[in-house]
Every structure is written in C-alpha cells, then in structure tokens.
Design brief:
Layout lengths: L1 H19 L7 H17 L5 H20 L7 H21 L1 H4 L5 E2 L4 E2 L2 E2 L3 H24 L1 H11 L1 H6 L4 H27 L1 E2 L6 H14 L4 H28 L4 H23 L3 H15 L5
Antiparallel strand pairs: 1-4, 2-3
Helix pairs in contact: 1-6, 1-7, 1-9, 1-10, 1-11, 2-3, 2-4, 2-9, 3-9, 6-7, 7-9, 10-11, 10-12, 10-13, 11-12, 11-13
C-alpha cells in the first residue's frame, strides 16, 4: 500500500504533464531520482529534517524539470519522447559522476522521518504519513485540473495552435507543466528513498518511466481517478504474478526460471496492449459509465 501511494503521487505528476498538457515524458523516473537524492543528501549530510527536505526535494526536481522541459518549446511527439529519454540518462550519468556528493553508484543513506522526536521505524507508521501526503497530492492535482492553469494545459494538448490564437502563452504553460509534474515526481522520489532507507540510481530504473505511462493508459489519461485505478491495477497485477509465478514454475519445470523472471513483464505489456485496443480511455471511462448507470437506475435506458 505504501508503494502504491508513492506511485500514485508520481503518476499524478506525469498525468499533469502528459494527460493534461500532452507533453509525453519517458524520463519521469530521473526526476524522482533528483528528488530522492536531494532529500537523502539534505538529511544525511546537512542535517535537515525529513519535513524540511521533502519540499526541497520537490522544488529541486521541479527546477531540473524546467531545464529539461526547454526542448518541449520546439519539439513535439516522437522527438519530445526522445529528448526526455536523453534527459533520464543525462541525469543518471550526472548523479554517478558527482561521487563526493551523491556517493556515485554506491548511493547515500536516507534516514527514517521523525515526528516530535519519535522515529517512524515501522512500515505501518510510515504508511500513514505517505497516505496523508498522497491525499494532499490528489487534492492538489484535482484542483489544478479544474483551474485556469489546467484548462490552459488541456487547450495546449488538444490544439496548441488554437490555444495560442486564444491568447494562451504556450511556452510558459509548457514549462509550468514540466515544473509541476516534476515537483510531484520529486516528492514521490523523496518518500520512496526514505521508505527503503537508501538512495541509489538502481532505485529508479528506466523501466519505471515506461510503466508509469502504462498506468496512465490503463487508468485513463487526464483523470486523477484514472491515476488511482492504473497504479492499483498494475501493482496488484505484480502481486498476482508473484503468487502465480512459483505455481507456473512447478507446473512447467523446463521453463521455470525463464517464465518466473519474465512473467511480470509479459503480463504488464499484454494488459497495456489490450487496453490500447479495447479500452483506450482507460478504467476511469468505464467507471463513469457505471456511475451514470446507477444514477439513472431504474431508468438507465
């Protein structure tokens, strides 16, 4: 549940950037790494408390997002995707090179947070902290979508030329979308490293960026409800695979090792392809149909 909540925060940032503004990013895990390293370094090296380091992590990731969001002012579609992939590898290379600060490939410790002098050592106590922050992040993301800024994002996503004609400052709003989306990612990265107690580049693999986008596809682009559906669905799918993997290995010993190792990737990919073909608007769209049916029942037809 803690990992699901952290994932929801991160995917909310990607939803603002991609679902609302239409700027597809495959470097989201790198911005989480910026937030995670910022928080860990501030707490371990400079003696900051977790509560002071958390907003600093979001701000640092947002500023880095502004820098790597600059290509979005001139690039679209496939070219923007490639630039965000490049951003991921540039950031990770930079982290590894700053060995004296980040610890390089070895990483840096991330202490457990404290409340009134009490260290939150148990997973249950940390879960409540993450849950509260997740609820605040969901509230903020939902209201951003309803605000003037959110409407400008949607106008840019639907037709940036028409939005510019209507007076929307496309450059400013695209950069703002990158900033806000990366702030969410930085906060999620900070929460993740303090959950594990250690921060390294291996905590933020490139595949996570792809799966976050897959969660948006499964849940529904441009919907905060869809973020929850997508994150919960794919994370529970991983748990289901973890249970059925040993059973499959026992039933087919000849392919046991290969099947157990690749089943999670196969199932995730298969689910995303199925949703792209049969339900491109995601689970959130189906949920809207269910709600509408029961609101009109028994006169649904």
């Amino acid at each position: 549940m803690t990992i699901i909540c952290i994932t929801v925060i991160s995917v909310n940032g990607l939803n603002i950037l991609t679902g609302y503004c239409g700027q597809i990013s495959l470097g989201h895990a790198a911005f989480m790494a910026v937030g995670g390293y910022t928080s860990a370094i501030l707490c371990t090296t400079l003696g900051f408390s977790f509560w002071a380091a958390l907003p600093c992590a979001g701000l640092a990731a947002g500023l880095v997002g502004l820098i790597f969001g600059l290509p979005s002012l001139r690039l679209k579609g496939f070219y923007l995707i490639m630039s965000t992939i490049a951003a991921y590898f540039i950031i990770m290379w930079g982290i590894d090179q700053l060995f004296d600060i980040t610890g390089g490939i070895l990483g840096v410790a991330a202490p457990k947070p404290e409340i009134f002098g009490m260290v939150l050592k148990s997973k249950a106590s940390y879960f409540y902290v993450v849950m509260i922050i997740t609820c605040l992040a969901m509230f903020a993301a939902e209201n951003i979508g309803r605000s003037r800024v959110g409407r400008a994002f949607i106008a840019i996503r639907d037709n940036d030329l028409a939005a510019e004609v209507m007076g929307v400052n496309i450059w400013a709003y695209k950069l703002l979308a990158f900033f806000i989306g990366c702030v969410f990612a930085g906060i999620a990265g900070s929460l993740l490293v303090h959950y594990y107690g250690w921060c390294s580049t291996e905590t933020f693999p490139f595949l996570n960026s792809i799966w976050y986008l897959g969660m948006l596809i499964v849940g529904g682009m441009g919907s905060t409800t869809g973020v929850i559906f997508g994150a919960v669905f794919l994370k529970l799918l991983d748990s289901l695979v973890a249970i059925t993997g040993p059973m499959l290995a026992a039933a087919f010993p000849a392919i046991a090792a290969q099947a157990a190792a690749s089943l999670s990737l196969i199932m995730r990919g298969l689910v995303i392809v199925v949703f792209l073909i049969f339900q491109p608007r995601g689970l959130a769209h189906g949920w809207q149909f269910i709600k509408a049916y029961f609101q009109l029942w028994p006169f649904s037809h």
